[in-house]
Specification:
- The chain contains 16 helices and four strands.
- It is mainly α and 445 residues long.
- Among the domains are: 102 residues; 117 residues, Cytochrome c-like domain (Cytochrome Bc1 Complex, Chain D, domain 2, Orthogonal Bundle).
- The strands form two sheets. A two-stranded antiparallel sheet has the order 1-2.
- Strand 3 and strand 4 form a beta hairpin.
- The longest helix is centred in the C-terminal third of the chain and has 68 residues.
């Protein structure tokens, strides 16, 4: 009987403890769900801000600037008819063919959202106008990119040397590959005799471009090096303008007359937004159009190549960039020592860009610290509430156990209805000496 009562009491205690654990687990689950919700809302925003700051940080900051100075052809003193630079091999329609209305509004909306560019896209925007789709160039004026890029691979260097009947150690091949890569990077940053500088490209853009050039040149393992970059529409327009358009078009100048166009004048970039609207420029770039020129103005086939590898949105980005960042002449310094207006504007733009970068950095830090502090507060509160709940439930369980024990196992017998419980004591657990002797007599009988 005693064992049965104790078993009932133990079962009840276990049941109360289980209920307490279930309620505590409920609190923990609720707090976990709350913290997950907070993390889902705050952490992605702060992580994106930090990632954006890391991508556009002080060592890799994208600062959009106006195109300026003479065209690359003018710099080389080379006539448009005597070069392969900036030519795609496709011209627009002639005067007898249907011509696009360059002043008609397009019904197709152009995207103004940031885009993700691959190395192949960066090659299109920056290099394809001169080096062609496959990097072969137009020798002897425009050299191929393939062999210089293949020279950055130790494996390909060793294969080429071995094919010529010579031997080369891996260390020697690595040294030559490093020298070739340094030369290629120098050419991108500083340009060459016939190649302009691409100093407008940042580190991530150069990495993505080089990775694609390796893939184009058939360098082993290049497919694993491919990366992407995130660019604004203005940045896309800047890259196309500086790398492709500025090859033939001077940044700023007077709008040429139709007679001057017939004589070979190329309109400066600063005049394009006045000569046509966005839809007209998009059609001119991607489809081509006849041009009005001559002493007696009349439609004639234009000399401008068609850049059919550019999308309409990319061509629209060029127009938007020219509107937002008007082209200007090269900055000069006044003989008296005072900076010109263009130089002053450049300094002001740079200062504004620096201030924006500083403000963005502060905003990123504020978001990150605020998110971290809020999550820490929620975690601390959750832990404290959980411990308090466990303590409260434990105290309730102890009190209930003590109350049940006192009721069912009193120290002295007071309830005649349960005499067997009233007689229970520590002495009852073991037989006394007299009882032991009586047992022995009974056993011997």
């Amino acid at each position: 009987m005693l064992g049965s009562r104790r078993s009932d009491l133990t079962a009840e205690f276990v049941n109360q403890s289980g209920n307490a654990s279930e309620r505590a687990c409920g609190w923990v689950a609720w707090l976990t769900a709350l913290m997950s919700l907070v993390s889902a809302v705050l952490l992605p925003a702060s992580s994106a801000a930090v990632a954006d700051h890391a991508h556009n940080g002080p060592n890799n900051q994208v600062s959009i600037t106006s195109v300026e100075g003479e065209s690359w052809l003018n710099h080389l003193h080379r006539d448009f008819g005597d070069t392969s630079m900036g030519k795609t091999g496709r011209l627009g329609p002639g005067p007898d063919e249907p011509a696009a209305d360059l002043h008609a509004e397009s019904t197709q909306p152009f995207s103004h959202s940031p885009v993700t560019l691959h190395g192949q896209d960066l090659y299109r925007l920056n290099c394809r106008g001169c080096h062609g789709e496959f990097g072969q160039g137009a020798p002897p004026e425009i050299a191929s990119l393939i062999n210089p890029v293949r020279a950055t691979s130790s494996r390909l260097i060793m294969q080429r040397v071995k094919a010529s009947g010579m031997e080369m150690s891996r260390k020697q091949a690595d040294e030559l590959a490093q020298q070739s890569m340094a030369s290629l990077l120098q050419r991108l940053h500083q340009g060459g005799q016939d190649m302009p500088s691409f100093s407008q490209l940042n580190d991530d853009e150069i990495r993505a471009l080089l990775a694609y050039l390796k893939q184009l040149a058939g360098v082993p393992g290049a497919e694993r090096e491919q990366i992407t970059v995130r660019e604004s529409p203005e940045r896309v327009g800047e890259l196309i303008t500086k790398a492709t358009c500025h090859t033939c078009h001077t940044a700023a100048g007077l709008n040429p007359t139709s007679k001057q166009l017939m004589e070979g004048a190329i309109p400066p970039l600063s005049t394009l937004t006045a000569r046509t609207n966005m839809s007209g420029l998009v059609r001119k770039v991607t489809q081509g159009a006849a041009v009005t020129m001559g002493a007696q103005p009349m439609l004639a086939a234009g000399r401008m190549p068609v850049f059919d590898y550019l999308s309409e949105s990319e061509a629209a980005d060029v127009y938007d960039y020219l509107m937002r960042y008007p082209p200007r002449q090269t900055s000069v310094v006044d003989p008296t020592g005072a900076a010109s207006t263009d130089a002053a504007l450049a300094a002001a733009n740079q200062a504004a860009s620096t201030q924006r970068a500083s403000a963005d950095q502060k905003a990123v830090m504020i978001v990150a610290w605020t998110s971290g502090l809020f999550i820490a507060i929620v975690l601390t509160a959750g832990v404290r509430i959980t411990f308090k709940e466990f303590a409260r439930l434990s105290a309730e369980s102890d009190a209930a156990f003590a109350a049940n024990g006192a009721a069912r196992f009193p120290t002295h017998a007071t309830d005649p209805a349960e005499p067997e419980l009233a007689c229970v004591s520590a002495a009852d657990e073991e037989p006394q000496e007299g009882e032991a002797a009586d047992w022995k007599r009974r056993a011997s009988a």
